[in-house]
Design goal:
Layout lengths: L4 H5 L4 E2 L2 E5 L18 E3 L1 H16 L15 H9 L19 H14 L10 H28 L1
Antiparallel strand pairs: 1-2, 2-3
Length: 156
Amino acid sequence: GDFGLVRAIGHQPASHGIRQSQTARIVGTSGYIAPEYYRGVITTKLDTYAFGVVLLEILTGLPSYDPKRNQEYSDLVTFIETMTRRKDFLLVQYVDSLAGDWPSRSFFKLFSIAQRCLTESHFDRPGMNEIYVLLEELSLLSGQLFAEENKTKKKT
């Protein structure tokens, strides 16, 4: 992330275990900006939110912001949140076909990690250190799943 957080909150006291600062100047790419940033609140959790958007982009192949989508759903986060509320929603409908063939459990786990990154309240959003651990676990799980799938394919 490039929000200048080190300068902005480097010497601020922690509030609820989270260092934060205030700003009146909003700068950034709208598809990646966390809700609290629009209120002028700056925390390191802004980067967690933006990373969640990147994960959604990887999963779906859709851009973070698309003015061609209905204006209400032009940002990817709102679009996916709206789709997941529909009764007929199937996450696999939104899998990027160009991403290759990967185990569905890995896909759903990565989507779950993205959702955690995109938690609306920055107090409830995990830090990148926690996300890193989750991605490491996913990497190990995915390796095991790929190995199991390859064994099954060789037997058939």
